[in-house]
Design brief:
alpha+beta; five-stranded antiparallel beta sheet; 2 domains
Length: 361
């Protein structure tokens, strides 16, 4: 009986202790909540600032670790810069181009394979299906017993942003091939008929690069640069043969739609500002073609940028792409106007009567 009474007393004391501690804990929680509620406008910003400081410190530490990582130039492994440039240009020569490191651009060779294919409207029609979303501006005129065409191009050529100026002529009759082509086929001018020309390509007013030379096809292409054609403008200079040629060309400019504020004449030189094309564009460049091809072009440019982000030199970048993504490297080599654009030549070559007399390198 006594043991039972003692046990009962102990249980009663434990109950009192639980009640006391429970009340104390509840009281403490209430005090904390009251404190937080009273100073919430101070504590919440302080907590956010603390989180921000921790985040910034983490990012700085991460960037410092990344900056301390040494990424060796690819040229340290595969050869000197001059050796790498020579190797690249040997590869590019088979595609009709070379790389110029001074402006970090690619340009067409004087005696490239494209020179044997002349030019006609069918080639412009083939550009959009081959991921070239470009403005085409052919200026056609007659001079010295020949039909001439000087054409300007600018826009996105696959993975490159670029511009071109080409000069062509013919004495042949227009082709009339039922179901294939009705129009003029032009030859690339011979060496003695080349002209001195130059152009500056700008994007949203900012200079991308310049080109000049005594040429028949002056070009420039910037790898990894993505642009819509309307973002680009070309300022072109053509040093023509004489006043008669200048007069014929300027008349053709006016008929195409150029106004006096878009060109000027100084002696035998004609300066043209090419921004918005005045001639009809290829029918293959539809809204859907342009939209989907440009999505693909932009995606490829971004993939190239991600793959080569650790390098600044284009030669190093291309060496890396060649190792890591052969498919992308092959696409880069097929820059400008690839052979697919000239497939139409096989359909019309048997109708062309006038032989080409272009020189060889």
């Amino acid at each position: 009986m006594m043991i039972y009474s003692i046990r009962k007393g102990v249980n009663f004391m434990l109950l009192l202790l639980r009640m006391e501690y429970g009340y104390t804990a509840l009281s403490a929680a209430s005090s904390v909540w009251a404190f937080l509620n009273q100073y919430k406008y101070v504590l919440i910003p302080a907590a956010l600032i603390l989180i921000l400081l921790i985040s910034v410190r983490y990012r700085i530490a991460r960037k410092k670790r990344k900056d301390q990582m040494f990424v060796p130039p690819v040229t340290d492994i595969i050869g000197s810069e001059s050796e790498q440039l020579d190797e690249l240009n040997k590869e590019l020569a088979t595609f009709g181009f070379k790389y110029e490191p001074y402006q970090d651009i690619f340009l067409s060779l004087m005696y490239c394979w494209q020179r044997d294919f002349g030019y006609c409207r069918l080639y412009d029609e083939a550009t959009a299906p081959f991921s070239m979303i470009i403005d085409c501006e052919p200026i056609r005129f007659e001079y010295a017993g020949k039909k001439w065409m000087i054409e300007f191009w600018k826009g996105q050529y696959g993975m490159t942003t670029g511009g071109e100026v080409g000069i062509y002529y013919t004495t042949g009759n227009d082709l009339k091939i039922k179901g294939i082509f009705n129009g003029t086929f032009y030859y690339c001018v011979n060496d003695e008929d080349r002209i001195n020309m130059s152009f500056a390509l700008r994007k949203n007013g900012n200079l991308l690069f310049t080109r000049n030379g005594y040429h028949w096809w002056l070009t420039g292409f910037k790898l990894g640069e993505f642009s819509d054609p309307e973002e680009l403008a070309m300022d072109i200079m053509l040093d023509l043969y004489d006043r008669a040629m200048v007069s014929a060309f300027v008349d053709a400019l006016r008929k195409t739609g150029y106004r006096e504020n878009e060109y000027s004449v100084h002696g035998s030189r004609v300066y043209v500002h090419f921004e918005k094309p005045h001639s009809s564009q290829p029918i293959t460049r539809t809204f859907f073609t342009e939209h989907f091809m440009q999505l693909n072009n932009e995606s490829l440019c971004r993939a190239y940028a991600r793959l080569t982000e650790e390098y600044t030199d284009t030669l190093d970048k291309l060496a890396l792409v060649r190792q890591e993504s052969p498919a992308m490297y092959n696409q880069i080599l097929n820059m400008g106007k690839p052979k697919g654009v000239y497939n139409a030549y096989s359909s019309i070559k048997n109708y062309i009567k006038e032989p080409s007399t272009n020189g060889k390198e």
